[in-house]
Amino acid sequence: MQHEAGAADAVVTAANVDLSNCDRELVHMPGLIQPHGVMLVLRPSDLGLLQASANMADLFGIPVPDLLSRGLPALLGDELAAALGAAIRQAGERLDRGPAHLLEVPAAPGRDAFDAMAHRAGDVLILELERRGAADLPMLNPYADLADCTGQLQSAASLQGFLEAAVTQVRAFTGFDRVMAYSFTADGSGAVVAEAIRDGLNPYLGQHFPASDIPAPARRLFALSWLRHLPNVDYTPVPLLPPSDQPVDMSRAILRHVSVMYSSYLKNMRAHATMVMPLMKDSALWGLISCMHHAAPLHVPCRTRTAVELLAHMVSSLMAEQEERDTAAYRGRMGDAIIVLHRQMEDESDHRRGLCRGDVTLLGWLDATGAALVTEGGVMLLGTTPSETEVRGIAAWLDEQDDTGPVFATDGLAEAYPPARSFQQAASGLLAARLMRSRQEFVMWFRPELVQTVSWAGDPRKPVQIDVVDGEARLTPRTSFDLWKEDVRGRSRPWLACEVEAAGSLRQAIAEVVLLRLNEELRKSNTELDSFAYVASHDLKEPLRGIHNFAHFLDESAHEKLNEEERGRIETILRLTRRMDDLTDALLQYSRVGRTEVVLQPVDLDALLRAVLEQLAPRIAEGGVEIRVPRPLPKALGDPVRLTEVLTNLIVNALKFTERPAGERWIEIGWREENGQRLFCIRDNGIGIAPQHLETVFQIFRRLHGRDKFGGGTGAGLTIARRMVERLGGRLWAESDGPGQGTSFLFTLAGTPEGENRP
């Protein structure tokens, strides 16, 4: 609500409240009570009286000044006052949680019977004596009916059925003319979702109430107490005496005076008595059970209210359980559907058909009216959706968002994406799961506008009316609760958390199938490439050999007859055929790595390394390279032939790529444990590798330097070494701090031979 500047600092009480400031009314400190009982404010240490309600003389025949000077015995007598003190001491911490029934004050000549209840409020005790009148409901045994009520609630098949059973049971239990289950929405407004009424009353079922009908202070108080009862709306409040500049907090008090705005509101609804119980979920106010009596005032006695309060606890608890059961059942159905969709995707050559055809489709597995699958292969639409062009527009917009995460959900798409206003009838709600980060691929579900028309109990644009009271214009609650309809645009029913979660699970299922297909296609491509490489390299050998031999024969037979330019051309042919022969040898070796079967066996890597170093000893000595092996290499699972080639390739690579003079070069071959895995490393102090080229060096036939620099070569050695390691179940990669800083080649293997001790 709007307030004048500076008004926020004003204290709003029952004396000056109206609808322009009711959100700030101190409804928990009114300094007033309802007249069907008395209130006493006590000092906890000795139960001395600090304040008493002004109706003491009317109900107990003793004026407040006399009572305050004489104490509780003057009100109850010595014996009952002592019993009350003992009951207060016995209640202990129970008094911190709200009013506790302590004892019954019996009727006396000229005086009704009373129920005595007390609770602690800050530094004081509040004692309330509530009158039992002859017009009260019959004093039945309400607890006998609780078991039947609980059974009726537990047998409900859904949350809606549960709420309908709850209002029916509460009405039967209390005798109110009307009992409504009322749920709050995100904007503070509410809707009547279940109702039980006597014949002849206009129903409120399905109607919405604006947030101003139950302002924030009232909602806080409803959440604080399990039951609020107003037996007679048309009453004259009673003040506490003597007045105090530190008002007592009556948040939990049974007799607390209600807001003037609230009582006016109830009168306008033609209610004579009310009782309200909160519906709590996860310690938050989910809604209310609101009871109204239209025929006459209705006082529900303390004994019945205690049972109803217990029922209110059970209703909230069972409601949460029922909602959880509904959610669990829905989540289970969605989970079963994902399994079927996963199977359908696997059965189809194109996984998209598995999502859009079959026993379950994208549209049928959760509560939506339309679905779309957006991939590079096109857009597939099911149900009521925007057009293909509009869906592509949504996908492009989603792709631009940095904070949407893998799953995006909204019940007001047009607010975030204004172009959606043109198709909000079909898609006010959007649930979207991103399939691939690198492409605009999404699966989407749509919901239409929630309803075209919402029914309100009165015009929500006019929650107040202006009345002239004593010559002043004053805001008061509306008097009309006639059905009023309003069009709602751009909103859908919100997506449930379990639906968002299920969309993420389906996204994962789709990704698994797509990844499986891609891996299979990659395997086939690799197999075909291996076959091509083998055939190409094998078949190229013979013509290359012929060209080389012919050129060599020509050079020998006609060398003296050829001029210098012609002899140079023949030498070029010989050099190029030798180069081609090296390349085909490398390609043939690469293809054989993928074609031969791998059988893992225990391998003594230390013995293997000694053999490799012995083979390379002349080259090591020629380069003046120091070989460092800090400790013996362990045994590993692998293939001795392939591991010999891997070690040879990596050590030869380290021997070649250095610019240091002989005597300053070194190569270290070692290993270590890291994250439960053995890591082998060939490290050198050679030329190093720039960070951007750490993967480039593993590309076949790719050299970072001139063809003849650092001893030449085909550029296939590291590629073959990596593929061999991968065939053995491990990984091979390079690390370097940059040019001139040396390089480390690290690799892992599949595992450790059984029985091999780990350090």
Automatic annotation (TrEMBL):
Residue stretches making up the Phytochrome chromophore attachment site domain: 158-313
Signal peptide: none
SMART domains: GAF, HATPase_c, HisKA
GO annotation, biological process: detection of visible light; osmosensory signaling via phosphorelay pathway; regulation of DNA-templated transcription
Record field: catalytic activity: ATP + protein L-histidine = ADP + protein N-phospho-L-histidine
Main enzyme class: transferase
Keyword set, alphabetical order: Chromophore, Kinase, Phosphoprotein, Photoreceptor protein, Receptor, Sensory transduction, Transferase
InterPro entries tied to this protein: BphY/WalK/GraS-like, GAF, GAF-like_dom_sf, HATPase_C_sf, HATPase_dom, His_kinase_dom, HisK_dim/P_dom, HisK_dim/P_sf
EC numbers, comma separated: 2.7.13.3
A Pfam family assignment: HisKA
UniProt keyword Phosphoprotein present: yes
Residue segments, region Disordered: 737-759
Residue ranges of domain Histidine kinase in the record: 535-753
GO terms of molecular function: phosphorelay response regulator activity; phosphorelay sensor kinase activity; photoreceptor activity; protein kinase activator activity
PANTHER family given in the database record: BACTERIOPHYTOCHROME (PTHR42878:SF15), TWO-COMPONENT HISTIDINE KINASE (PTHR42878)
Family classification: In the N-terminal section; belongs to the phytochrome family.
Protein name per Swiss-Prot or TrEMBL: histidine kinase
